[in-house]
Amino acid sequence: MTDPFGFLRIPREPVPPRPVEERLGDWHEVHAGQALLPLVSRQADRCMDCGIPFCHTGCPLGNLIPEWNAYAAHGDWHAAYERLHATDNFPEATGRLCPAPCEDACVLTINADPVTIKNVEQTIADEGLRRGYMQPRPPGRHSAKTVAVIGSGPAGLAAAQQLTRAGHAVTVHERADRIGGLLRYGIPEFKMEKAYLDRRIEQMRAEGTVFVTGHDVGAAAEGGVRTRADADAAELRGRCDAVVVAVGAGERRELPVPGRELRGIHQAMDYLTCANRVQEGDRVDSPVTAEGRHVVIVGGGDTGSDCMGTALRQGAISVVQLDINPEPGPGRTDDEPWPVYPRTYRISHAHAEARGREGRDPRLFACATLRFEGDASGRVRALHLTAVEPVGRSPLAGTERVLPAGLVLLALGFSGPQRAGGLREQLGLEFDGRGNFARDAGFAARGGRAPGVFVAGDAGRGQSLVVWAIAEGRAAAAAVDRYLTGSTCLPAPIAAHDLPMSALGRMRYGDY
Predict the structure, then answer these.
(1) Interval 492-506: pLDDT, tens
(2) Whole-prediction pTM value?
C-alpha cells in the first residue's frame, strides 16, 4: 500500500511543463524531456487507498487508480503497467488528453488538493513503453467470426483490440489515409506525439487486427458508380458476422451570422488537420496558417484551446478565444458538489502560453459573435461581438465591440455523426432525439436492417471525452462478443446510456 500518512506529509506537486518560450519554439509535447520518475513516485504516495475510492466512479473506464498508485509509489513499474492496462487500452492517450475527472472525484479533494492521477497514469504508460512492456497479446484461439469496425478513433480502436484478443477476425475500415481518427488529425502534436499512436497500432497489427485506410464505408455512389476506395455498408454487413459503427460525431456546428462566407473563416477541425499533416510530413506548410495574422477562435472548449496552441506556434500576431458562457468561479458551486466534475476556472497549456506571451488570459467570456467584416478582396478583417446575459445568452445593448481578425476558427462542437453519405440508409440506422445514431442499452443499433450492427463512441453518445470513447469501445466489444458466441468474458465498464456522474450520482436511464 501507499504511505498511510503521505497525503498529510507530501504536498501536491504536478509535473511542471517546459518553459513557455521553449515549447512555443517547437511542436514537441508540453512535458517532453521532463524527469518524471522521482516526482511521480512521491506523488503517488499521496494516495489514501480509500475504502471507497471515488476516483473509480469519476472515471468511466473504472481505472484501478489506488492499485497502480501503490505500485508506482514503490517503483514496481511492471505491475503498475499491468494494472493500468487491465481497464484502459490506451493509457498513453488518456494520460495526455483526458481532463482527469478522477482527480476531482479524489477523496482528498473534499478539503485538500487531489492526487496527481493524470501525471501518474502518463508516467506508468511511458515508463512501460520505455522498458519494453508493450508486447502484442494475440489470441490463444480463433472463433472463425468476422467483425468490421467502421472508424479508427479511440472507440473503434478499443473495440477492435478487445475483439481481436477475444479471437475474432477484426478489420478496421478508415476513410482517411492513416489510422487514428481524432487522435491522428484532431489532436495537435504538442499534446500527443503521434509516435505513441503508431506504436499502439503496430501492437494491434501484431495481434491480428487488420487495418484498411482510404476506405469510406457508406459513401454515396456518384451516378450509381462506386469507386474502389468506397464500400456499401450493407454489403459489408452481409460479408461479416457483426459490424461496429464508430464513426464519431463529425457533424460540425455552424455560425450563421452575416459575413460567414468571407475567406479566412474555417472550421477548427479543418485547421487542426492541416497543421497535423505538416507534422506528418505530408506538406511543408499548412494551407491555413495563423502566421502574421490576428486570430479569433469562436468556442471555449478544448478544441478551441488546441487551435490556440497551434496558432501560437505558427506565429500568430495575437490570439483571442471567445466563450459564450460566463467566466467560471475558482471553486465548486452548490449544484456541483464533490465528487462530480465541476465547471471551474481552468487554464490549459495553450492558455498559459498565450498569457505568458501576452500577459493576460486570452479568453473573453459571456460574449457572442454578431457579424464578420471583410476587406475589399473578400477576406475577413474584423469580428463584431457583443456581451450576452448569462442565462438566455441574449445580447446586452451597448456592449458591441470589434476585434481585428485575419483568421477566424469555428470551434463550436459537433451535433452527432455526419449526415452526408449513405451509411445511415445502407444500414437502416435511426437517429435519436439528440441527433446521434440510436441504440439500445447494449449498444445494438436501433432500426438496423439486420441484427449484428452495434454503435460505439461519439456516434451514439455525442461528442465526449477520450475516456468515454475507450469505455464505449470496450463495452461495445463485450456486447459484440456476446452476440457472436452467446457469452463473454470481456469487461463492459459502462452501458450505452450511462451519463457522467452528477449531483444525483451516475445516471442510468436504461433502454428507453
Answers:
(1) 999 999 999 887 765
(2) 0.95
